[in-house]
Design a protein that fits this description.
Blueprint lengths: L7 H17 L5 H31 L13 H30 L4 E3 L7 H15 L6 E3 L13 E7 L6 E6 L7 E3 L6 E5 H7 L1 H4 L5 E11 L16 H12 L4 E9 L2 H11 L6 E3 L8 H9 L25 H7 L2 E5 L5 H12 L3 E8 L7 H11 L3 E6 L7 H13 L3 E3 L6 E2 L3 E8 L2 E9 L11 E8 L2 H15 L11 E3 L4 H16 L5 E6 L5 H12 L3 E6 L16 E6 L4 E2 L2 E5 L6 E5 L5 H4 L2 E7 L3 H16 L4 E4 L5 E3 L11 H18 L18
Parallel strand pairs: 1-6, 8-9, 11-12, 12-13, 14-25, 17-22, 19-20, 20-21
Antiparallel strand pairs: 2-4, 3-4, 3-7, 5-6, 7-8, 10-17, 11-15, 15-16, 16-17, 18-25, 19-23, 21-26, 23-24, 24-25, 26-27
Helix pairs in contact: 1-2, 1-3, 2-3, 2-9, 11-12, 15-16, 18-19
Length: 705
């Protein structure tokens, strides 16, 4: 195994440990710590459903192709994953237990039956008999009654029933139409039980003619890695219909994990494993709730009463770059604009769409949609434009994982409104965040282009850090048009002068920029590469970064999640540093910086340095030509490098160490810094005397270069 590479799946588990650290951090407000516990568990669910599911499928077809970075086979990776996840169960249980213990000071308590008073137990028993028992459907599994289908991520109460001849199981689904949280009557305190614990306690009433030997709660996670190709053999099929069928299959795929709370007994476990075709290593035993989605309900009950248990409320601020009482298109023609989410509001972007939809000069609006909000104002603006007679071209990615159903619904609505809806190339997801507004001013065509690092989603724009560039640069606009034209006929962009467009002209152009820094280092110049990414797994680009490090190029990377390159390894990656920031917001923006001074080139992009992004998807990276915006992005990157509160630095052994300020050092929380900066800028806007600006509807675009 090469010491400067890490396995993708094991690196992801290290990232999720950093999420778990937030659930353990006593400096994080208590209800936010609870939320991080829920995020940790939710992340694991998706990891097992997709990544573990994919590895499991490969073992079924004897695909022993080793990981090209560590040489681990699929079976090796699965073994390591299950071992590591089971090691972390104790830690996740402890984090939840400690948080709940501290919440008891506020009257919040998840109670056990042993701690109930006699009157409280009578109340719960009456509640069970009147509100829960009529709504449950128990099963007995024996020779005459087959083992039922257990739904993905659903909780079941399982009992080992006494039988003379064989093992009998009693199974009760506990995900019903009754509330998950059952509150005990109390004026001032929030003492509660979970419905599954109540059902498990009273399962003797349900199986009244049996003696219960053991009982436990279980939850299975099923493989949800749908192979798109199996539905696309016929080139004449409707992709939307194929996706609807594949979504039905997702709910029935093979189990890859069994979680247990309690002790069903060894015989019952063997019985479960036999029916579910699971091995003992795929079982984890937890003391914390198996499903933590109830935490959202708990938070809602506490938010107004105990605001100190939460992060201080923050709302996205007005951008200082925009005159908010004037049309936005002429402002973009005058100078490039960048929005920084969630510190600044997405509203100016929505305003741009609404303005374009009613502008008589606008002839077309083209956009790629990957994930959108369930009540999307962006979709409404596109529909409004189509109803106003504009040509609206929308590429909807129906294969956006776990958003397929939402996107299918929106695609139908967009079509009904008169938008032209496309689904992208047959074998490639379109992950780019690209908008092109084309205007005809007299005999001249003008473009407004938006390139983003994050989705057109109002909800996530308040939770994820992303950048959104608005420009009237003619060259960028023409190349954005080239991207849309290629997508509309199923082709790919092979060459471009401004944009980098995956899958054919992003990886190679990034490699050229790395080579340029290697050459600069050879000439004795100061050579530099700065990258902010969600993940780094592309072996080709990692090899280029290693080459650059060996050539003396300084490389600084801020990578939130997976990082398969190990920094600081002597003689190999000693000129590379890797930081990861996990905090209040999900770090999502992608920034590429190459060179220093006059040689410096800055890009923002939708693409991580993952093979799936660089050569298997349609992605776009855009150059930032405005010196003012370039400097702003450099400032953002430098503040991230200064973070000594929420940042972790990768060590040469591949582990991560949390940073903390030295005694004489100022504490820097990058996200808090940007929150305060945005608030100060917004306050400056409010305090200034309103300026009357004469804005022309038509005029030459002046690009800030």
């Amino acid at each position: 195994m090469n010491t400067c590479f890490d396995n993708r799946e094991l690196s992801w588990l290290k990232f999720n440990v950093r999420v778990l650290e937030e659930a353990e951090d006593k400096n994080v407000p208590l209800c936010e710590r609870l939320l991080f516990s829920q995020i940790y568990r939710s992340n694991l669910d998706e990891f097992f459903m997709i990544r573990v599911g994919s590895l499991y499928d490969r073992t079924l077809v004897d695909d022993n192709k080793a990981d090209n970075k560590t040489g681990m086979s699929p079976a090796d990776q699965l073994k390591a994953i299950y071992k590591k996840v089971n090691e972390l169960v104790v830690r996740q249980d402890k984090a939840y237990k400690n948080t709940m213990k501290e919440l008891s000071a506020y009257g919040v308590e998840q109670v056990s039956f042993s701690s109930l008073s006699e009157s409280e137990e009578e109340y719960i028993k009456a509640y069970f008999n009147s509100e829960i028992r009529p709504l449950i459907s128990p099963h007995v599994v024996d020779k005459r009654h087959p083992f039922p289908f257990l739904s993905n991520k659903s909780i079941y109460a399982v009992t080992h029933l006494e039988s003379k001849n064989s093992v009998k199981l009693g199974i009760i689904p506990v995900n019903g139409s009754f509330p998950r949280i059952v509150l005990l009557p109390h004026k001032d305190k929030l003492r509660f039980l979970l419905a599954e614990d109540i059902i498990l306690h009273y399962c003797g009433i349900v199986f009244e003619n049996y003696r219960i030997l053991n009982k436990a709660l279980i939850r299975i996670t099923r493989n949800a890695d749908i192979n798109m190709e199996e539905g696309l053999y016929d080139h004449d099929v409707d992709l939307r219909e194929v996706m609807q069928e594949l979504l039905k299959k997702r709910k029935k795929l093979s189990p890859v994990r069994l979680e247990i709370s309690g002790d069903p007994g060894s015989e019952a476990i063997k019985h479960l494993c036999r029916h579910l075709e699971l091995k003992e290593e795929q079982i984890s035993v937890s003391r914390a709730p198996l499903d933590m989605t109830f935490i959202f309900t708990l938070r809602n009950r506490l938010e107004k009463k105990y605001p100190e248990l939460f992060y201080a409320p923050v709302s996205p601020k007005r951008s200082a770059e925009i005159i908010h009482d004037a049309p936005i298109i002429p402002q973009i023609e005058s100078h490039d604009i960048m929005l920084s989410y969630p510190y600044e509001s997405i509203r100016p972007f929505i305003r741009l769409l609404l303005e374009a939809g009613s502008d008589p000069d606008v002839i077309s609006i083209k956009i790629t949609l990957y994930r959108v909000a369930s009540d999307s104002k962006i979709i409404e603006a596109l529909i409004n434009a189509a109803e106003n007679g504009k040509e609206v071209f929308v590429l909807v990615e129906l294969r956006a994982r776990f958003d397929e159903e939402n996107n299918i619904g929106w695609s139908k609505r967009l079509e009904r409104a008169g938008c032209k809806v496309m689904y992208g190339p047959e074998s490639l997801k379109v992950h780019s965040k690209l908008l092109l507004i084309t205007r005809k001013c007299g005999d001249e065509l003008k473009y407004i282009t938006q390139i983003g690092t994050g989705n057109y989603n109002e909800k996530t724009s308040e939770l994820y850090t992303d950048l959104s560039l608005l420009t009237a640069h003619a060259g960028i606009g023409k190349e954005a048009g080239k991207v849309f034209n290629a997508l509309s006929i199923g082709n790919l962009v092979e060459n471009s002068n401004h944009l980098m467009v995956a899958p054919l002209s992003l990886q190679n152009k990034v490699a050229e920029l790395i080579d340029r820094e290697i050459a600069a280092a050879a000439e004795g110049e100061e050579a530099y590469i700065g990258l902010k990414l969600n993940s780094l797994t592309d072996k080709y680009l990692m090899d280029k970064l290693i080459e650059a490090s060996c050539a003396g190029v300084k490389i600084e990377m801020v990578i939130r999640g997976i990082c398969c390159l190990v920094a600081g390894v002597e003689g190999v990656t000693e000129n590379i540093t890797v930081r990861s920031i996990v905090g209040r917001y999900l770090e999502h923006s992608r920034i590429y910086i190459f060179g220093k001074g006059d040689r410096r080139k800055v890009y923002i992009s939708s693409a991580d340095f993952m093979t799936r992004n660089t050569v298997r998807r349609v992605e776009v990276a855009a150059p930032v030509y405005s010196e003012r915006i370039c400097q702003r992005i450099l400032d953002i990157f430098n503040v991230l490098l200064m973070d000594n509160t929420k940042a972790r630095i990768q060590l040469p052994d591949g582990t991560y160490k949390r940073l903390s300020p030295a005694e004489d050092e100022k504490a820097v929380d990058a996200q808090q810094y940007f929150i305060e900066e945005a608030a100060q800028k917004a306050e400056t806007i409010r305090s200034k005397t309103p300026i009357k600006v004469k804005v022309r509807r038509i005029g030459k675009a002046k690009n800030n270069k």
